[in-house]
Amino acid sequence: MKKNPSQPNQPRRQFIAGAGALAASALLAGAPAIVRAQSVPIRIGYWPVAAGLPFYAAVEAGYFKQAGLDVQPQKFAGAQQVMEAMLAGRADGSANGTGAGNLAIGEIAQPGLFKIFATNPSNAKYVLDEFLVPKDSPIKSIAELKGKKVASGPGIQNVTLAKTVLERAGATGATVVELPIGQHVASLAAGQVDAVYTLEPTGTVGRMNNTTRLLEAGVIAKYILGDPMAPWHGGAAALTTEFIKKHPDLAKKYIAAYTRGIELIRTNPDQARAYLKGYTAIEGSLTNEVPLASYMLYSEFKPSDVAYFQKFYDLFVEKGVFSTRVLVDSILYKG
Q1: Which label site among 88, 148, 170, 196 has the fewest CB atoms less than 10 Å from its CB?
Q2: Shortest CA distance to 121 belongs to which of 296, 304, 297?
Q3: For the chain, which residues score pLDDT lower than 50?
Q4: Alpha carbons 257 and 64: distance in angstroms, whole number
Q5: Strand pairing of 129-134 and 212-217?
Q6: Which residues have CB under 8 Å from 121's CB, separation 6+?
């Protein structure tokens, strides 16, 4: 009896399919770790400020790929959106430059949400935070911003800090409005605001195109922490606790590769600067001008660093932004 050609030999097909699956499994089992690791995406949120450079460098220099990691950068308009993505499970961590205050709000909403493994402390020497005015503005000090219109970056951290600095500098009656950081230079040039509280590379961009002037830098260290040279741990790189628990080996590899990005900035800043392009508004001659932030790994924290970090967080309790006190020591990665 002839077999119907439209009805193939099912046992044979199943055997071939099964053999193929077994072969594929055997190949995967024997494959290098780099192949297997790439099946787990690591989604990292960032926003386009210069402080995120270690992350940009680790991506572009191939440090993550060399560690067998599938790191997926996610760009957001502000630090608050990065935190919200982590809270919603749409991001597994944050790059440096993400507001530490914004992260703490996520911690209050969901205790144990993340662990910080690196910060980008800034002050009068390592410049990140600054007040700018139009190039031809007659204003010479922050105190002279009384009753003026001042823009800040988006999110509760930026707004709270801008208002507090203005208040402590004696600029009573100033109005603070939120604007995306990429619009700060244009808003000053157009006369829409009298000043901006912003983050690098904004000041460098405005200086290079001859439209803005630095009023004062390192303002958070001076007016919030009480010492112009104090480390303001305003931005942080973190991983969610969920990711660390689910993938402890990948988390360690990620932090090690990220650390290579920090080491590159410390040892070869000129090479590292090139990686600002594509992630920030910095390119061309600007890359040689923008000040680079300082970075501190979890293993480098001293008691004084924890104390200054805590003082920064306690400001938000004082201002009614945090409903409860967030203890810095509880959110630092321990290795």
Answers
A1: 88
A2: 296
A3: 1-38
A4: 6
A5: antiparallel
A6: 231, 232, 233, 234, 293, 294, 295, 296, 305
